[in-house]
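Input.
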Amino acid sequence: MTAATHTKETLKFQTEVNQLLKLMIHSLYSNKEIFLRELISNASDAADKLRFEALTDDALMAGDGDLKIRISFDKDARTITVSDNGIGMSRAEVVENIGTIAKSGTQEFMRALTGDKAKDANLIGQFGVGFYSAFIIADKVTLLTRRAGVGPEHGVRWESAGEGDYSIETVDKVTRGTDVILHLREDQDEFLDAFRLRNIIQKYSDHISLPIVMAKADAEKAGEDETVNRASALWARAKKDIKDEEYHEFYKHIAHDWEPPLVHAHNHVEGKLSYTTLFYVPQHAPFDLWDRERRHGMKLYVRRVFIMDDAEHLMPGYLRFVRGVVDSDDLPLNVSREILQHNKVIDQIRAASIKRVLGMLEDLAKNDADKYRTFWKAFGKVMKEGPGEDFANREQLAKLLRFASTHADTDEQAVSLADYVARMKDGQEKIYFIVADSFAAAKHSPHLEVFRKKGIEVLLLSDRVDEWLTSHLTEFEGKPFQSVAKGALDLGKLEDHEEKKAQESAEQENKDFLDRIKKVLGADKVKDVRVTHRLTNSPACLVVEAHDMSTHLDRLLKEMGQSHAGVKPILEINPTHPLVVRFKDESDEQRFNDWANILFGQALLSEGGQLEDPATFVSQLNELLLILARK
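Output.
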């Protein structure tokens, strides 16, 4: 299709877009003024994109480098127009970005709705569907656009009444950029007022660094424009001149969030390098937190000129929730992603920025426990990725980690490693932990029995990332980490001489019994069978050698479809348990075999494992229950 044909088409919206239009019209009516915030935000993004593309193609500016956003209204026609001279769109881009919205997060938005109209109205920007807010006050929306770099004959006109379809045609458009024309509903005349529009702009968009202009109100100066917002980069201003409300509004703009941030840090660095950073930590996790490929939390500027959304080169993966701005005076304006990969300036800014964010979190943990608790609930699992990714900051990261433990025996992750070390028993040399599939499995694990008896605190780990964490974080302040489910238990100075003597005696007395169990189970099931020193109430448990893969990690890898040799556990038997005492003297070989397999099966189940043959296990268990019931 060529521009000359000016062909007009009528196309259907996607089903999700149709649902969204109905929501905008009927559900978000009470927060209708947010339409202007969203359209201005889109216009600002269009200007940023043009600046970036023009770095490698000056012709895109076409002699019009004075980028701005213009708001106008016509009382007679009952329209409001939001215009920009940014990047604009081609016909294909209009269909993709407005008609189809395949990539906009529309479905995620619909799922995230809370029913709270105030919150839901503010969600729209976060999910990239802000354009549709125009239909809150308009019964028809017309969009005229022309992409930078093409001629006037390649303009595009898009129009819809928000009722399931839209028309699109190629038209002539003299200027580059986009005009969004809102044809107001009958009851929306309040927005056909200059004072009302100015108030909305100053309330929501004062921080936009692009000038937002309107016609001067003075009748004698008709035809002249004036800038309504501050039109300066907020981060470039002195901290003492910025109110918290301004910091919060700027955060809402760059993060598309409806709540103020949890904490922020604003710094100007001068010296060998000159740059400014403004970092925010959100109160809640964004919807795409676990999409590691989607990293657009940080905006990179060079001397106030937007370069790119780039979190990868500015923040490590475990800090992907951080939102903000880095503005460098030392990078070239034509910097590319390839250049960033091997740039000493970026490396130094990144290293200092990580320190800055971790320092901000340290201050939060020290000075506001409630806010840090909110932070950890939202981002704790992501922070646990840190010690494996960032060796240089491992010690600082370790201080920020929080865990559940047997100290409180609740699932709240509130225990710091410093708290744990401060409560360690006299003579305790290790930090004990257990990793399980769930908090309940960790809390009720038989491996904890001797630790509970002696009052030794154990960290209860149940996040999927905890295996990764404990494989990389092996000590804290000189205290090594020790899994309670690995290796032969050695409590060192926490055991007295009599206990050690009794353990040695039990091992000798039960040697033949253990060998008999090992023969029944076979080498395909267990690596060894030995007397336990960690059980007080349970008959048996499974452990692995100190340097073997944990059984929990073994299961995780199998779930992920990764082929590996697997791990053979060690079965530990509690010789004082009544079931084991009864089993020990069993002379019937078949019955002894059933007992051995039942003990192994119970131990496997108690740590979250799966039986290879559940039916046989149940049959063996039922048979022995019947025998015991007859006695």
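Confidence is low (pLDDT under 50) at residues 1-5, 101-106, 121-128.
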